[in-house]
Amino acid sequence: MSEHVSNLLSAYIDEEVTNKEAELVEKHLTDCSACYQEYKDLKRTKQFIGETYENVSVPLSLENTIINELQASEKENRSKRMKVAVAAGMIFMAMIFTILHFIPGGLTLGSSLLRFSFTLLHASALSLSTFPYLFGVLGVISIILMGVLAVVVQRYYLVEKY
Predict the structure, then answer these.
(1) So where are the chain's domains?
(2) pLDDT in tens, 92-115
(3) What is the pTM of this model?
(4) What secondary structure letter does DSSP report for 103?
(5) Exposure on the CB side of residue 48, measured as CA atoms within 13 A
(6) In the chain, fewer beta carbons within 10 Å around the N or the C end?
């Protein structure tokens, strides 16, 4: 047999090969001293690691430390997501306000809309710690409201123009 079975040895030791692969490995190990030596070395290494692992004791505080780090990371991620959402909402509102600036009579409506949207976003940011999903809901409502008001202003502009 010309091909070595090195790539199957670990799986063979762990009994993770098919019957056909196991027969192939066993036959090859009887014919190839290099693979047989590799097999013995790998088996000894796995046994050593298994025995060493059994003797390792993990401090009880490790689980609490890991959980605390994960919770701190989640709080930081939540804070970053909130900042991105607020920034995106403010950019969107600034775009709407800019568009309304060029529509006659839209500036007054735009400023009212902008103030109302900022109030919604501010209220959602304040209630974020109590109701985490409320920020998203109020953000979506304010965006929908701005879209509806933009359409109303556009129709008002078109009706008054003609």
Answers:
(1) 6-55, 61-161
(2) 766 666 666 666 655 566 566 667
(3) 0.36
(4) S
(5) 6
(6) C
